Amino acid sequence: LPNHPTLSLSHRVNVEEVGGEALGRLLVVYPWTQRFFEHFGDLSSADAILGNPKVKAHGKKVLDTFSEGLKQLDDLKGAFASLSELHCDKLHVDPENFRLLGNVLVVVLARRFGGEFTPELQANFQKVVTGVANALAHRYH
Amino acid sequence: MLSAQERAHIAQVWDLIAGHEASFGAELLLRLFTVYPSTKVYFRHLGDQPDEVQLLSHGQRMLQAVGVAVQYMDNLHAVLSPLADLHAQVLRVDPTNFPGPSHRPLLRQLVVLASHLQGEYTVEMQAAWDKFLTGVAVVLTEKYR
């Protein structure tokens, strides 16, 4: 797993904006993911989704948790153990969704950082999001 | 399958790439090989460390094919048939490499678009290209069995 080259961008990430945009784009690009968020109100169009305050708030929450997990890159499975159980037992989320969100996050970062988001940084982030997705799937039974 | 709006978004993005197939294609391949080193197994003919000339040349060929797909996006079967034969019989690239929500490497190359277009890369464009590339992938792999 990567170390600090990834985190060098992390401190420049506006968690609220990036988290909201990542979750919003997930819901637009892969509309079936809306099945978990029917209680979020207006998801009737791309604009509605991206502007939806519940989507933004939840996106921030997800990215905050993700960032916390980055502090334990050498034990992601441990870091996300209880969240994994929650997503399996209570939320009933197919782990494939974690991979989808991770990939959308990489696209959002590329949008933000443009050419600074080099192939090497992309590779590092891809490893991290894959690691987090695997960790979140780890406790499924 | 593609709405009029989706077709417009696809064409809009392509307009920004057209004329730059070589450099976009080279970057796409570079990112592909950097992020997913295992994909290099399909490009042995480019050598162990493909140089810039090779990446530009092969990248251009790939993106020109994408350009053809954009031009004929309502009739992908007809226009991509020879490439489908090639991928099925000669190249035999494992289908999981192709775009599709659960397929990985090539789809992640939408990152190339995102990093170049940045603010202009709207969510509608991302959704339309994701869907379009998935359609291309379906056609490219449909003769596998």
Automatic annotation (TrEMBL), chain A:
<dbReference type="Pfam" id="PF00042">
    <property type="entry name" value="Globin"/>
</dbReference>
<dbReference type="InterPro" id="IPR000971">
    <property type="entry name" value="Globin"/>
</dbReference>
<feature type="domain" description="Globin">
    <location>
        <begin position="1"/>
        <end position="141"/>
    </location>
</feature>
<comment type="similarity">
    <text>Belongs to the globin family.</text>
</comment>
<dbReference type="GO" id="GO:0031720">
    <property type="term" value="F:haptoglobin binding"/>
</dbReference>
<dbReference type="GO" id="GO:0031838">
    <property type="term" value="C:haptoglobin-hemoglobin complex"/>
</dbReference>
<dbReference type="GO" id="GO:0046872">
    <property type="term" value="F:metal ion binding"/>
</dbReference>
<dbReference type="InterPro" id="IPR002337">
    <property type="entry name" value="Hemoglobin_b"/>
</dbReference>
<dbReference type="GO" id="GO:0072562">
    <property type="term" value="C:blood microparticle"/>
</dbReference>
<dbReference type="GO" id="GO:0019825">
    <property type="term" value="F:oxygen binding"/>
</dbReference>
<keyword id="KW-0813">Transport</keyword>
<dbReference type="GO" id="GO:0005833">
    <property type="term" value="C:hemoglobin complex"/>
</dbReference>
<dbReference type="GO" id="GO:0004601">
    <property type="term" value="F:peroxidase activity"/>
</dbReference>
<dbReference type="GO" id="GO:0020037">
    <property type="term" value="F:heme binding"/>
</dbReference>
<keyword id="KW-0349">Heme</keyword>
<dbReference type="GO" id="GO:0043177">
    <property type="term" value="F:organic acid binding"/>
</dbReference>
<dbReference type="GO" id="GO:0005344">
    <property type="term" value="F:oxygen carrier activity"/>
</dbReference>
<dbReference type="GO" id="GO:0042744">
    <property type="term" value="P:hydrogen peroxide catabolic process"/>
</dbReference>
<dbReference type="GO" id="GO:0031721">
    <property type="term" value="F:hemoglobin alpha binding"/>
</dbReference>
<protein>
    <recommendedName>
        <fullName>Globin domain-containing protein</fullName>
    </recommendedName>
</protein>
<dbReference type="InterPro" id="IPR050056">
    <property type="entry name" value="Hemoglobin_oxygen_transport"/>
</dbReference>
<keyword id="KW-0479">Metal-binding</keyword>
UniProtKB/TrEMBL annotation, chain B:
<dbReference type="GO" id="GO:0019825">
    <property type="term" value="F:oxygen binding"/>
</dbReference>
<keyword id="KW-0349">Heme</keyword>
<dbReference type="GO" id="GO:0046872">
    <property type="term" value="F:metal ion binding"/>
</dbReference>
<dbReference type="GO" id="GO:0042744">
    <property type="term" value="P:hydrogen peroxide catabolic process"/>
</dbReference>
<dbReference type="GO" id="GO:0005833">
    <property type="term" value="C:hemoglobin complex"/>
</dbReference>
<dbReference type="GO" id="GO:0005344">
    <property type="term" value="F:oxygen carrier activity"/>
</dbReference>
<dbReference type="InterPro" id="IPR009050">
    <property type="entry name" value="Globin-like_sf"/>
</dbReference>
<dbReference type="GO" id="GO:0031838">
    <property type="term" value="C:haptoglobin-hemoglobin complex"/>
</dbReference>
<feature type="domain" description="Globin">
    <location>
        <begin position="1"/>
        <end position="145"/>
    </location>
</feature>
<keyword id="KW-0479">Metal-binding</keyword>
<dbReference type="GO" id="GO:0004601">
    <property type="term" value="F:peroxidase activity"/>
</dbReference>
<dbReference type="GO" id="GO:0031720">
    <property type="term" value="F:haptoglobin binding"/>
</dbReference>
<dbReference type="GO" id="GO:0020037">
    <property type="term" value="F:heme binding"/>
</dbReference>
<dbReference type="InterPro" id="IPR012292">
    <property type="entry name" value="Globin/Proto"/>
</dbReference>
<dbReference type="GO" id="GO:0072562">
    <property type="term" value="C:blood microparticle"/>
</dbReference>
<protein>
    <recommendedName>
        <fullName>Hemoglobin subunit mu</fullName>
    </recommendedName>
</protein>
<dbReference type="Pfam" id="PF00042">
    <property type="entry name" value="Globin"/>
</dbReference>
<keyword id="KW-0561">Oxygen transport</keyword>
<dbReference type="InterPro" id="IPR000971">
    <property type="entry name" value="Globin"/>
</dbReference>
<dbReference type="InterPro" id="IPR050056">
    <property type="entry name" value="Hemoglobin_oxygen_transport"/>
</dbReference>
<dbReference type="GO" id="GO:0043177">
    <property type="term" value="F:organic acid binding"/>
</dbReference>
<keyword id="KW-0408">Iron</keyword>
